[in-house]
Amino acid sequence: MTTEKHQTKGIWKVIGASSLGTLIEWYDFFIFGSLSIVISTKFFPSDNPTAAFLSTLATFAAGFVVRPFGALFFGRLGDLIGRKYTFMVTLLLMGGATFLIGCIPSYETIGFWAPFIVLILRLLQGLALGGEYGGAATYVAEHSPNGQRGYWTSWIQTTATFGLFISLIVILATRSLMSEEQFELWGWRVPFLLSILMVYVSYLIRKNMDESPEFKQAKSEGKTSKNPLKESFANKYNLKFVLLALFGAAMGQGVVWYTGQFYSMSFMKTVMHLHTDQADTILGIALLIGTPFFIVFGWLSDKVGRKWVMLAGMALAILTYRPIYEKMYQLTNVENKQEITDKKEEFFEVVHTEKGKDEIVTEKVYYTDRSVLTTTKTKHIVDNTTQIISKQTITIAGWNYIKLILLIFIQVIYITLVYGPIAAFLVELFPVKIRYTSMSLPYHIGNGVFGGLLPAVSTYLASNAQASQDSEFYLAGLWYPIIISAVCFVIGSLYITKNMYSKNL
After folding, report:
1. Quick one: which of 44, 117, 304, 409 is 20 to 30 A from 318 by CA?
2. Where in the cell is the protein located (predicted)?
3. How far apart are CA 87 and CA 75, in angstroms?
4. What is the mean pLDDT of the segment spanning 119-133?
């Protein structure tokens, strides 16, 4: 194979160009999830905040559900015309959709057109991302020397986490440069609008890239596929590997990944009621510390095999998710805290609006462990109509702050175990001529369907448990990733073997 003779010289250029574009696409995708609470108030009816938030999560999930269709469409193109041009198109599609989300008028301005347009743009984002990852992973793997695919492709794996990390940094920076009222009014649009500049830079870099050596050789020898979809999924032998890739690896990887990066963020903000800036900062620190372990476990999978590195991450998640989230919840549970009674503060202000006025009462309660509980009651008065909205947030400090970072960091380690080797594992399962198509579908069903549905399904389970007055309602949402990971662990343990993909090394 060409790859066997290919040296690492120049591979950093390949990784840099591939990673930058993939990072930007993940950034585009993540800012929607990171701003889901704010978005729920802009594009959905405000009379029922819980329903609006669930609708936003469902819209977010829709972008994941459509990813397999993007994998089929762009995977087929990638196997027909090449890796380079296909994932340049996905970059532009993703960037354009993200920019337009930042331009949509609010629900108050255009009514139900707002959530409808957001949904359409989320679907376009999902289609684009469905074609992006398979192209980038395949492109890097086909430039990598044998025996080092886990190491080199793991650099691509870091881009998803860095994309989320950068999205958090941009959001925090935007918040810090304006008042809370300005951010709520229009500042939330800035992270969406900025993406167009990053996409343009990535496009300039990507357009100068060469096609992958393995695909060029296959094309010059006339060995590319004429019908990648048929050869990938109508061929029973290849279909067996597609299904094993999904149910024995990608499905569990997807739910572990989204639990650690998305459910944890939603849990801190909506269940623990942690202040949004503090939750974003804690998640960002944990991601920054944990990201190098993608490289570590990608490298380790070259030495000991992909299978047990990935399955170890799933097993740890199954065994420890509930204890981890129990400890997280108790860090902000004021029932277990001692109040400093002589330090309570209360503020009152009146804000005049175009339609009336807001009477805002803010109460701060201090605790001995340096936690601060802030309760804000806003009375919207418009003509003869009064609406009262109450919001409660808590900030933590000291050892509690460090413990929460550690608990999120542990989940990031699980992510790096399952995600670090997955690109090399999927690439090595399939031959060059149908690789883009065959690897993209199981990856995006595992991540897009099983993983992407996690925030909505887990929030629904937790809401039902709370409605039924379950004392541990905050742990109910974890049953979804635990059960999916357990099924995947069993299938992967029984059926994944090293010699099954040695033909493509």
Report:
1. 304
2. Cell membrane
3. 9
4. 82
